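We modelled each protein-ligand pair independently. The example shown here corresponds to the fe (ii) ion entry; the chain sequence is given first, followed by the ligand as SMILES.
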Amino acid sequence: MLPFSWVGFHVDDSEVTLNVCLGKEFFGGELYFRGVRCDKHVNTGTHQEEVGYYSHIPGRAVLHRGRHRHGARATTSGERLNLIMWCRRELKRYQTDFSSWCGECLRRKKERQHRAVAATKMVYTIS
Ligand SMILES: O=C(O)CCC(=O)C(=O)O
Ligand SMILES: [Fe+2]
């Protein structure tokens, strides 16, 4: 058993993480999620729609992207036992560019597209 009851905010060094709750009886220990990020944007702010929670249930698992920023709240009583599998393809093929998964990259790309469309509309309106 780990000598602490909470896990700080982080991303996993994995492409996909499988987190299986094995038991036992406990209160607390919820996971909180704050959006997928690449290395460049890992410390950027969280948008309201990216806030999510997952309460562990013994016998159930959650599968999430390693780059999905998360942490675990304190287990306030009892004992929580989880099996965590950090999964990725073989090391030499490990994907390090997560920009296509990153919520911040996607948001910025969308903003650029909107600005381009707005600029095009302005050109058509003026001419
Ligand atoms: O305690 C948990 O359920 C999450 C642990 C975790 O995120 C990790 O070990 O990477
Ligand atoms: Fe984790």
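Strands lie at 7-10, 16-23, 26-28, 31-36, 51-54, 61-65, 68-72, 75-78, 81-87.
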